[in-house]
Amino acid sequence: MKDLIHAGQICEVEDRDPSDVFLITQSDIIASGDNDVEAVRLRDLQRNLSDPSAVIRVRIPFTSLKIIANDLEAYIESWNKDR
User: Fold this and answer.
1) Residue 58's closest CA among 30, 27, 22, 18?
2) pTM: predicted TM-score of the whole model, two decimal places
3) In whole angstroms, what is the distance from residue 46 CA to residue 82 CA?
4) Backbone angles phi, psi at 55, to 5 degrees
5) Where are the beta strands (DSSP E) in the chain?
6) What is the helix (H) or strand (E) element at residue 44, kind and residue range?
7) What is the pLDDT of residues 19-35, one digit of tens each?
């Protein structure tokens, strides 16, 4: 069975500033080299909490993604893991 990318997963993108972290907004995408994934930059989402639908969505090639957390809660909890 192929891996699925899920809405809500947190990822970094190869060749981008490491402080740019993205939230995947598209549901259940088969993880393969020819698929793009729709996402929003977490920083932009935080700045637009009053209107999250106004945040620009970007298409990111699956091959550039590095999933770093399965959801926002796990991502926030990871900040304190090694302390």
Assistant:
1) 22
2) 0.83
3) 25
4) -70, 135
5) 4-5, 10-13, 21-24, 29-30, 36-41, 58-61, 65-69
6) helix 42-47
7) 899 999 987 776 666 77
